[in-house]
Each structure stands twice: as C-alpha cells, then as structure tokens.
Amino acid sequence: MANSTFVISAPPVPTLPVTGSDALFPVHRIYCVGRNFADHAIEMGHDPNREPPFFFQKNPDNLVLSGATIPYPKRSSDVHYEIELIVALKSGGEDIPLESALDHVYGYGVGIDLTRRDLQGEAKKLGRPWEVGKAFEQSAPATALVPASQIGHPDAGRIWLSVNGDVKQDGDLNMMIWKVPEMIATLSTLFKLEPGDLIFAGTPAGVGPLKTGDVIKGGVAGVAELDITIG
Ligand code: MN
Fold first, then answer.
1. 113: CA distance to ligand 1 center in Å?
2. How far is CA 152 from CA 87, 146, 149, 155, 174, in A?
C-alpha cells in the first residue's frame, strides 16, 4: 500500500562505504562460510577432507566500520578474531551457474568474523544454533568496499591479521577450499541471493582470543586493510 506508514520508526538500512565514492552500499544479508581454509578446519579439530565448508549468518546491523573502538562483547570471556575476505553482491538469483557467478560481484572488502568462542562451543556441544556465538552486536567489523571494476576478482594474495603488532594469521586467498564463484553458486542453491548480500569468505589458521585494549590490524593484499581496537 503506497501510503502505509510504520507503527514504529523504520530501522535504518545498514550500509558500507565504497572506496572512491560518496555513495553507500546497502547491505541486505550477511552470509558467512565456515571452515573454508583447511588449516583452520584442522586447528578447530575437523578433517577438511571429510567435512566441506558450510554457511551461517550474521545480522546486517552487526557491521561496524574499520577504525572503530568497540567494547569487549558481552557474556563472553573468549572472544576470537577471524580475518576474512568480504564479497559484496550487486545482483543475485537462485541456482547461479559457476561460470557466471562472478558477474554478480560488486566488489570486495575485508572483515573480521568476531566470535564468542565459548558460547559457540557450548552451542556446538548441545546441538544448538550458533547465533549467540556469531551474530551479536558489532560482531562484523568491515572496511569500505572496493569495486571489482577497480581491482578485478582477487583469487590469490596474502590475508593476515595482527594483534598489538604480532602477526597471528598469515594465509593466502589461494588456500580457500571454496573459491568465490563456488561460494556464490553453492549459496544460491540454498537461498535466493539478492543485491546487497555480503559473504564473509572464511578465515585461515591462527585464530585466537582478544582482550580489552587490543589493537587489531588485518588485511587482504590488493583489497583493503582494517583496524579495530577493543576498548
Ligand atoms: Mn569465520
């Protein structure tokens, strides 16, 4: 109905800035890929040859822009960093063929899949959903997006994260089990992808805990660099 009003004020559309533009990228959903690097699957106690990657979600309003100081997340004493490539979609669909999957990509960014590991571990043990471990306030620090028209579609390059200057994660995008086209094609068999969807593409080995006062820096070569302080 054209003249409908809202009974409460409508929530704002979550957005990410775009490098080199004043216009914003509106975020629809955030999908995350679990265990997409063999070395991280192994460090978490899984066999990458037997268990393929999988998906979970964060909430779009869990995004927080690089440069922010964020409070130590509530109800956890074991919050972990996971540096990840972000894939931003400009179009979508269902059952997207592998060959045309990259045509749907607007651009790329860098994010951290902040994880309340203690709450996630409890959920895993009890067979419960992961939201308490993954989809909490400010759990998705992210950089501005860089359009693929400027950088192409990176399929290799260093992905790294440091805490207080010590490098903790140091991998390469070419180690991803599902490459970006496979993520998009597979995800589109499960969900209808839409313009504005983000995919957090999974993390390499070296995840670990954070504490108040930590300064986190990270990046993907050729894409962007991110910094966040826990304060
Ligand atoms: Mn992750």
1. 5
2. 12, 10, 6, 9, 15
Question: 40 CA to middle of ligand 1, Å?
Answer: 10
**Domains in the chain, ordered, with CATH?**
15-230 (3.90.850.10)
Distance 155 CA to ligand 1 centre (A): 18
Q: Kindly report the pTM of this predicted structure.
A: 0.97
Q: Using one digit for the tens of pLDDT, what is the confidence trace for 156-214?
A: 999 999 999 999 999 999 999 999 999 999 999 999 999 999 999 999 999 999 999 99
Q: Which chain residues have CB less than 5 Å from ligand 1, an ion?
A: 82, 113, 203
Contact present, 192 and 89 (Cβ < 8 Å): no
Tell me how far the alpha carbon of residue 157 lies from the centroid of ligand 1, in angstroms.
18
